[in-house]
Amino acid sequence: MEIRCRKGNCKHNTGCSCMAKEITVTRSGCCETYDRDELKESLIIENGNLFEISSELVAKNLRNVPLKCRATNCLYNRSRECHANGIFIIDDEEQAECATFIER
User: Fold this and answer.
1) 77-78 and 67-69: which strand pairing?
2) What proportion of the chain, given as a percentage, has pLDDT over 90?
3) Could you tell me which of 78, 74, 62, 79 has the C-alpha nearest to residue 98?
4) Alpha helical stretches, state H, the chain
């Protein structure tokens, strides 16, 4: 599963890929695994917004990561696990939101 993340100030974000060992999405579709990194935060403020590098330039982060999902109304949720081919986390001010969420 490929896990892409636009939350540049998360300590698990490396090259717009999530490197967390386990990911949990809340009932409201937010990434509970998001953990703010003060150093990355200061780099974003100092240097402007981080940008995503083209997927052709960055090796795909295809890993078998446990992806727990509490959003029981999501199309991809089966028995509290995400069964999407990949997920995309976007930056929503203070939260990290799962953009793969599709309400059924």
Assistant:
1) unpaired
2) 49
3) 74
4) 38-47
